[in-house]
Amino acid sequence: MIESGERARVQPETTEASRLVETAIQEGLLATLFGRCRVEYEGRAASTLKEGERLVVLKPDGTALVHSDEGQKPVNWQPPGCTHEVQTDGDSLVVRSRRETPEEVLLVEFESVDHVAIFDVTDDHDLSLTGTEEDLRDRILEDPSILEPGFEPRATERQTPAGAVDIYGVDGDGNAVVVELKRRRVGPDAVSQLNRYVESLERDLHAETTVRGFLVAPSVTERASRLLGERGLEFVSLAPSPDT
Amino acid sequence: MIESGERARVQPETTEASRLVETAIQEGLLATLFGRCRVEYEGRAASTLKEGERLVVLKPDGTALVHSDEGQKPVNWQPPGCTHEVQTDGDSLVVRSRRETPEEVLLVEFESVDHVAIFDVTDDHDLSLTGTEEDLRDRILEDPSILEPGFEPRATERQTPAGAVDIYGVDGDGNAVVVELKRRRVGPDAVSQLNRYVESLERDLHAETTVRGFLVAPSVTERASRLLGERGLEFVSLAPSPDT
DNA sequence: GTCTTCATGTCGGAT
DNA sequence: ATCCGACGTGAAGAC
């Protein structure tokens, strides 16, 4: 086990920084490094990042993150499942993170390391999230008349040749109804998605069956609204949470 | 300016941890905290995360990240532009990050802080990235016959009522051509997107004009391929980089 | 600000 | 493993 005093270093020697990161990799700990580095990536795409100061996070699950001073997204990264390696090269510290299928490599070369710390992380709890598309679905299943009086849900995730429909059902006149749900304001892409399912069902069911398509979301953009009209699709304004 | 020895603390007192984070917020530094905490979020959605050990990163641009031991995505976060606050509440340290439009709040309550560090980050360089859709576009513009002998590009980002077309041009017979580019293997969504542009142009141009739609990507899924066929659209296999 | 689309998207669930 | 769609998607460019 790592002693408390052995977990972090300010202005560490390269060999000492390397030793700490190596320990983290071996023991399944999370490691953070801060310092001046350059970064190279090659895999699904390829990138180069010149010298600058960044925070690097290596997770025990094989994730690597390179964060600059700005932005929510890391400037470079490697997904979970990668194998991390650390090595010294003269004064510089080099972190390599690899994966296969697809073959991807991330290389971080530190010219100087200002800070290293390693942590034994235990996180047993999952995130509980509300305001999702599932909440929106449940609102409609609980009271289908919100969509339209007479609407009767028959299935969720009903399969069509074009993919699974969020809610499938029938209206008061016995017409087939396809419902596509979105938790937030929708654009043209959502209209196309709904249209795909409707057209697919029209081919699949007998020709005489009318298939109505409903897009359910808090709101729609102007262009999406026009597209809905052109395709003969309908819109119902509804949010995942009753108050919003 | 922060003295080197003043930048990090292991097992800090709550007041000392608070002082460091406060300094980071005031002086535009990046702060990292590691410890046992619970997290609440409310905004576009709402979430709760029970006690566990996590790494929290506060960036000078107003970004907040809460990372657990797994995954590339933070378990909770706040986008750039937020205002961070830190305060002590008995033994616990509370970090609050707020933004407006939309109103969103992130609250991280530390029951214990194992480590705090703050960093003055300077990162002057931007990422240089290859293998993007733009690279794919340039390949075709450089040698349009890759798409089809006789193809002549006339515009990129040509506007239609349904949105901007990646490449617009004419084929050897004078027919209009719409090209949709994807840097990777495509599914049904890309087919729908191309179809939107083609249908929009068919309405926009005179009725007698034939509009051909090309999807250009490294590969296509089976379902997408079938959809292309049904719509009378064409596929050309091409990757952003010549070798892949 | 809103809109639209790309992304090394990531992630989860189903096949 | 691939496919498919949701995501508090994020980020960028256009308007």
Please characterize this protein's 3D structure:
Two copies of one chain form a homodimer. The first copy, chain A, is an alpha+beta fold and 244 residues long. The first copy, chain A, folds into two domains: 4-119, Protein Yojf, Chain: A (Distorted Sandwich); 133-237, Trna Endonuclease, Chain: A, domain 1. Helix content of chain A is 21%, strand content 43%. In chain A, helix 3 (188-204) runs parallel beside helix 4. Mean pLDDT of chain A is 95; it is low at 1-5. Chains A and B meet through strand 2, strand 3, strand 8, strand 9 and helix 3 of A and strand 2, strand 3, strand 8, strand 9 and helix 3 of B. Strand 3 of chain A pairs antiparallel with strand 9 of chain B, so a sheet runs across the interface. Chain B binds a DNA duplex (15 and 15 nucleotides) through helix 3.
Question: What's the short story on this structure?
Answer:
2 copies of one chain form a homodimer. Chain A has helices at 14-27, 133-142, 188-204, 222-231, and strands spanning 8-10, 30-42, 46-58, 64-67, 76-78, 83-89, 92-99, 104-119, 128-130, 152-160, 163-170, 176-181, 211-217, 234-237.
Describe the secondary-structure layout.
2 copies of one chain form a homodimer.
Chain A (H helix, E strand, L loop, with lengths): L7 E3 L3 H14 L2 E13 L3 E13 L5 E4 L8 E3 L4 E7 L2 E8 L4 E16 L8 E3 L2 H10 L9 E9 L2 E8 L5 E6 L6 H17 L6 E7 L4 H10 L2 E4 L7
Chain B binds a DNA duplex (15 and 15 nucleotides) through helix 3.
